[in-house]
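A sample follows:
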Amino acid sequence: MKIFPNTGTYNILEGVSGKSSDDTKKKAMKDAMTAIRQTKEAISLTKKEKSTVIKEKINKKISAGAKLTPQEMAYLQRTDPALYMRVKRIEMHREALENRLKGCKSKQQVEAVYSQALSMIREKDPDGQLLAKAFNDVLKEFKKTREYNSLPAEDKDEEAPKNIKGSH
């Protein structure tokens, strides 16, 4: 009888015959089923461990104010819809700040836009600290760009009126 090819159970059952072999076959089947069950449990523990590692990685990124990948967002949406909604809100504010920074004409204006964004965070906002960290991350990443480095220190339009006022 060939029940489980390529396993130890196959070899055990192959040479067994007679009445006493029924007991042996039952024991071998029971042992095989136990081994399968244990293997399934080990695999599911591994999946749980992987899930825990993924959640920890995502939580660290959120806490640091870092942007999540689309895969991480999809994972959150599947596994923790409430957190997903909070992070989605933060991401929307983050993108709005990124767009505003890209429109700045000077480094001074970048700092003003950043300060204004921080001042818009309400004290009672449960995600206020996460928003602030996200804004810090946006500013840090923007300052690394060629676009930021090519900006003048001060806005030339702002300098002209100051000079005119000072000369009168």
